[in-house]
Amino acid sequence: MGKKISGSIKAQRTITDIIVHIFLVCISIVWLIPFIWLVAHSFRGGVDRGQFSATFFPTQWTLDNYTRLFTDTATINFPRMFLNTFVIACCSCCISTFFVLAVSYSVSRVKWKLRKSYLNMAMVINLFPGFMAMVAIYFLLKAIGLTEGNFIPLALIICYSAGAGTQFYVMKGYMDTIPTALDEAAYIDGATKWQTFIKVTLPLCKPMVVYQIITSFMAPWMDFIFAKIICGTKTQYYTVSIGLFSLLDSKEYVSTWFTRFCAGAVLVAVPISILYICTQRFYQEAMAGGVKG
After folding, report:
1. End-to-end CA distance of the chain
2. What is the DSSP letter of 271?
């Protein structure tokens, strides 16, 4: 009797697993179809370069869309936009990651006055989307002369990284799980708070550091609103999001630049993919060390 019951339970679990896996495969297909279509049409050749195509896959394949995206810079200077975005994203990523780590350590491991008030204030601020303050931020930057000329990239870096100090709750929650006995042992050995932060806390926070680096890089890399407001009509400071949007901004561009827009959209995903591949190793090492310990 017991064997029959256990056998029926095992059969039910097998059926449930099959249904769940079929559902996940279907969802994956739905998510992958637009990406596959985008990649395929970035290689579409022929006379018609517009958004409409009679077939899912192109009938003619070419690398001309990628080539012209970097060589034909008379209308859209994509290489300059790509470089602008890369520099801004790298600088913002470094500053934001440091701010988040420093503030998270301060509110998680250090006791100080007004700590609770700061936590409540940061929570209230995070309830509102960042773009709600974009008009006020623009006029503040304009008042100090950062919306003109070569200061525009600096203004964008400030926009993306200055408010990172309030986005610490996820990192703080992770640091709270690290035993305080490790910090106390480091203090007994003569370590300062900075040495404890660098040599004890950060190595144990590698998975969250990787997460923070990726999210801090993606925010400026994918942003459109702040970049468009601050750059205005100054095309030499445009980022890739503004550049790709301008490719589809008029019917004339849509009919001739759509396949190059697809190529640009594929290239936008390359730096993020490389960053994820490079940082994934540190995430896996940290998780393996945590399980072993």
Report:
1. 43
2. H
Q: Which tokens go with 163?
A: 């408010």
272-283 pLDDT, tens digit per residue, is 888 888 877 766
Please state the φ and ψ torsions of residue 112, each to the nearest 5 degrees.
-150, 160
> Using CA atoms, how far apart are residues 130 and 125, in angstroms rounded to an integer?
9
CA atoms within 13 A on the CB side of 249: 9
Q: What does pTM read for this prediction?
A: 0.81
Q: How far is CA 55 from CA 40, 51, 156, 222, 248, in A?
A: 11, 12, 41, 30, 21
pLDDT tens, position by position, 53-94? 777 777 788 888 888 888 877 778 888 889 999 999 999 999
The CA dihedral of 125, 194, 282, 28, to the nearest 10 degrees, is: -10
CA-CA distance, 203 to 253, in Å (whole number)?
A: 49
Instruction: Tell me the C-alpha to C-alpha distance, in Å, between residue 160 and each of 3, 115, 132, 241, 277.
Output: 61, 24, 14, 15, 23
User: CB within 8 A of 234, min separation 6: which ones?
Assistant: 152
What are the DSSP calls for 99-154, one per residue? HHHHHHHHHHH---TTHHHHHHHHHHHHTS-GGGGHHHHHHHHHHTT-SSGGGHHH
DSSP, res 44: B
